[in-house]
Amino acid sequence: MRVAVVGGGLAGLTAAHLLSRAGADVVVLEGSPRAGGKLRRERVGDLVLDVGAESILARRPEGLDLISRLGLDDDVVHPSLGQATVWTRDALRPLPRSVMGVPADLDALRASGILGELPDGRSVPVPDEDVSVRAFLEPRVGAEVVDRLVEPLLGGVYAGHSDQLSVRAAAPQVLALGADPLAAALATEPHPPGTPVFAGLRGGVARLAETLAAGDFELRLDAPVRVVTRTGSGWELAVGPTSAIETITADAVVVATPAPATARLLAEAAPAAAFALAGLDYASMAIVTLVVDGPLAAEGSGFLVPPVDGTTIKASTFSSQKWPWLAEEAAGASVLRASIGRRGETAILHQDDETVVELAAADLRRAIGELPPVLASHVQRWGGALPQYDVGP
Question: What is the C-alpha end-to-end distance of the chain, expressed in Å?
Fold first, then answer.
């Protein structure tokens, strides 16, 4: 069976890997000059670093299972056990244990100084209809919990906003807390010590996509798919630049592209699906990577930032303190990343790289103190990268 996979990101490459292992003749059609999607490595100074996603969830089996199937088990690494923090009220403050921002330890929350007052939990019946994360939580735990604890986490995961993201789709663990989320969160047991939340790969998690891309299938780059058409015996795909369209035939098609592109491709073949996908919005953001000449003046693995504080960056990762393998490779230098941009906040992404680096570095200095001299920097813009799971019907 001949299968065409449209899109050479992680989803498309994984589909191609599984299909080829099952005996299919697979071609992957990627419209850009490189495969891997949001998994990407670039050279920054003397180091080769992830400039997109840097880890996978270790508490779900799918990612680690795929790594194992690819023979990369020996290169699996976990972050150092550093304290996560929130930069708010002019200080880095320890982030207490929570369920997606809903406090699970009031003593630790009090000691952190993140909130002006401890929340008073209230029981409010759970609505039958879908609502935003803020609409669900604010009447039950108060606005300050949402502003300073929930919003930073949503920004880090989705680059979105609590008043737009669906509690059902974006924060089901919050919805599962029920009518009195604070009481339910306080009753949860902490994960056993040493249980890793995230996993990466020595050398960078982008190696996962690179290994998949070298699989037993045909991978065509700079091969945008223009039209997908059903035929009597299968499918035809119009591929390539408009001046030199090529027709590829297949028995089956896997579409593994972002929603807007998928909607265009399926407009004729599956109009109902195309209509639904066309309504899905995406957020843009950027990752600023700095390599500095010496240790950082802060411990831990990084920090989140509440948008209510009005900073440029929304999070920072102290990568060489988070990943032991990177500390070894950095050989005395430090690597840190800053995330910039949320849904609807794209003006800074249009600035030149030098300006973006300067703005990020200024926030970092305010948060952690003076930085060692910058040896190298890199700005990776991810336009339309993160789907926004808005309130649904």
Answer: 39
Per-residue pLDDT tens digits for 100-158: 999 999 999 999 999 999 999 999 999 999 999 999 999 999 999 999 999 999 999 99
Give CA–CA dist 135/143, Å, rounded: 10
Sheet with 56-57: strands ordered across? 56-57, 198-201, 76-77
Distances (CA, A) of 177 to 79, 109, 127, 283, 389: 28, 19, 13, 27, 20
For residues 71 and 208, the answer to whether their CB atoms sit within 8 Å is no
Mean predicted confidence (pLDDT) in 317-339: 98
Contact status, residue 219 vs residue 41, Cβ threshold 8 Å: no
Q: Which of 25, 22, 3, 1 is nearest to 237 (CA)?
A: 3
Q: Which of 90, 153, 171 is nearest to 315 (CA)?
A: 153
- What structural domains and CATH numbers belong to the chain? 2-37+206-279 (3.50.50.60), 97-187 (1.10.3110.10)
d(Cα 145, Cα 112) in Å, to the nearest integer? Answer: 13
Q: Which residue has the tokens 């794209």?
A: 346
Give SS3 for 219: strand
Q: How far from the centroid of its chain's Cα atoms is residue 332's Cα? A: 28
Name which of 28, 34, 1 is nearest 14 in CA terms.
28
User: How far, in Å, CA of 77 to CA of 68, rounded?
Assistant: 13
Reference 1, options 29, 28, 25, 27; nearest CA is 25
Which tokens is 256 given?
Answer: 């593994």
Instruction: Judge contact between 170 and 160, C-beta under 8 A.
Output: yes
To the nearest 10 degrees (0 to 180), the angle between helices 10-21 and 61-69 is 50
Angle at 269 between CA 265 and CA 275, to 5 degrees: 65
Specify which residues 82 forms β-bridges with. Answer: none
